[in-house]
Amino acid sequence: MPVWLVLPVAAAALVWPLVPWRARQASPCAGDLRSPPPESVAEPDLYCMALLPAPRVLDAGGVAELRRPPGPFSLALTAEGGIRYRVVLTTHGLPAPAELGAYTTYVAWVAAPLLSSVERLGEVPSSGTAVLGEVSLDKFLLLVSAEAGPDVAQPTGPFVLRAQSPSSRMQPADFLEFVLGASSVAAGESGMVMPAAPAADGWGAIPMPAGITMLPALMALRPRVTPWRPSSAGTVVDARPRELVPLADGDSVDLEAVLVRRRIGDRTILGYGFNGQIPGPLLWVREDATVTVRFTNRIEWPTSIHWHGIRLDNRFDGVPGVTQEAVLPGERFTYRVHFPDPGIYWYHPHHREDVQQDMGLAGNVVVESSDPRYYGAAHREEILMLDDLLIGRDGAVPYGLERATHALMGRFGNTMLVNGAPGYRLQVRPHEVVRFLFTNVSNTRTFNVSLPGARMKVVGTDVGNFEREAWIESLPIAPAERYVVHVQFPEAGTVPLLNRVRGVDHVAGRFVTEQDTLGLVRIAGVPMNDSTARAFGRLGAHDAVRRGIDRYRTRFDDPVEHELELDMRTRDLPLVVDRLMQVDSAYFHPLEATGTMPMMNLMSTGDEVRWILRDADTGAENEAIDWRFRVGDVVRLRLRNRRRTLHQMQHPIHIHGQRFLVLAVNGVPNDNLAWKDTVLVPVGATVDLLLELSNPGRWMLHCHIAEHLEAGMKMVFTVEERGVPR
Ligand code: C2O
Ligand code: CU
């Protein structure tokens, strides 16, 4: 059977066989789902499950909503990377339990697909809505049974309603297809495997994720662009670790983008570094300082420096074609950067980021608050830049010369880096409290960082602190986001710094475990027992942040001023890719956390894949959108991540020059706010922002997946001074 026919058939076979066809057609979330209103979820079929009745209660039914538990992140993840949902169940038409036998109540259960585990979610009414427990399984069943009492530990009565998780729609492609079609691969390094013979076409051996099967037709795909790697002709310096550059108000610093030789483990690759350093120099300024940066471009691409998250003078925002001309090879540009907000920021090029940023052009800026207790107490501070690189047997996998490759999912790397190098190391004392300032500078990877055995709380994010600290089990951090977390280490031993996510094996229709050890923290010496160590158990509040946000609260219920749909279009895809994507589109996971489709991804460029920001009111797309605001405006924006095309992904949406609050995700309001400049919009989800327009000029709004930006996902809006006629 052709591969694109298998899935629907398999899926149909799984549907409760005795249910009338009409019930199977019922649209999930239509009708029954009252809270939240369906329009608050962009794609209900990813977050709602229709409950199908058993033969003896054929008039009954219902809907289960997979609701995001409130929290500091757009996606609630477990430390292992599972998505946490609270189950909100609405039933109708169930008879009184006694009509079915010696039963008094209905109880909902969550079960693994083959019933290997069954857990109680809570009591449900015959008709009405119940907020139940949480589920974080990859694929699962929801079951409702009639029971003799509400507190039964296992289901013993008859099942009356059942539903499958949206993720259950992911099914393996035809088995025979695998047997005939699996490509031969040999074991390689870094948990990835290498095709037995590297292709002699300039693209080299493309690393494949271990344990994932690919069809030969896919292995043969190559992008329709010229493979590009830097040439070492000319000056190359050895990359150095970054240096700390303290800058007082009025100071100047020189930055030069240069070609460097990077040691990554036991291999040497060419990269780019600001002043030869990877990451770039760590600029350390005081809140409200203004600094002059004299930039020289000594790489072979046009470039620029963007000051990410900083509400600076528009002329120095560093966007070629919008705020300045690109700085050509050999040329200079002088930036005057004012730092109004304390926090952790970063700088990077804004031209072909998929190449330049990936190769090492990224540096942090710490803007120190005038309040020495801004973040609360910690014994020390570690500034960690998370990144990944895609390295094959013969060096870095080439980039596209004319256009970015990997337009579909972004260039996932196979080598994890902390501050530009694998194998981060730290030594701490027992009970020591460390403040980590994380920045994700990768092209596309959302990390899910945890330190098992250590306690972790989130303190701040992009443009300042949360209203109050919150305990977290892991830190999901999307490209360009920053988070400040306080971590207290245990008594003794070694705590790994992990990235743990659930990967989606699109061909086999299953989830796979991915765990990367980013570093190790060794605990030794005399235990810390001062007030900082002892106070860690309490969650602090940031009253100044809360008071600062107070004056915006009356605006939280304003009508939505602009709605942006996040979408995608494809054309001219090879047939095999198109077919596979059609099958795959039965389900999209809210977070694509790792690169499990390397060839389909590599071969797609902006010619085949166009990522879209669409103004829901006007239908205008990307650069055709023309929003105008005035300084002082405060507007509600809604981002809706659609899934109507062949592939959809989460998008970290970044707004230049301003700051915003994330009011709600999928209609669930946030009750602990912080100012941000980048927000992750999960697949099929809706994110509501309150955007403050405080800074005049022409500014960009775009996806921070470097390859999505290159494939069109960007727009410009204008903020005019007050008093200037529109
Ligand atoms: Cu950090 Cu327009 O980007
Ligand atoms: Cu994107």
- Report the β-strand fraction as a percent range: 35-45%
**What small molecules are bound in this structure?**
CU-O-CU linkage, copper (II) ion
**Mean pLDDT score, rounded?**
89
Structural class by SSE content: mainly beta
Radius of gyration, CA atoms, in whole angstroms: 26 Å
Low-confidence stretches: 1-28, 31-36, 176-191
Written description of the protein model:
The chain has 726 residues and is mainly beta. Among the domains are: 3-169, no CATH class; 184-225, no CATH class; 232-370, Immunoglobulin-like (Sandwich); 551-571 and 607-720, Immunoglobulin-like, CATH 2.60.40. The strands form ten sheets. Strands 5-4-7-8-1-2-3-6 form an eight-stranded antiparallel sheet. Strands 37, 38, 40, 42, 43, 44 and 46 form a seven-stranded mixed sheet that branches. Helix 1 (3-14) packs parallel to helix 9 (575-584). The longest helix has 12 residues, at 3-14. CU-O-CU linkage binds next to strand 19 and strand 47.
Concise overview:
The strands form ten sheets. The protein has an eight-stranded antiparallel sheet with strand order 5-4-7-8-1-2-3-6.
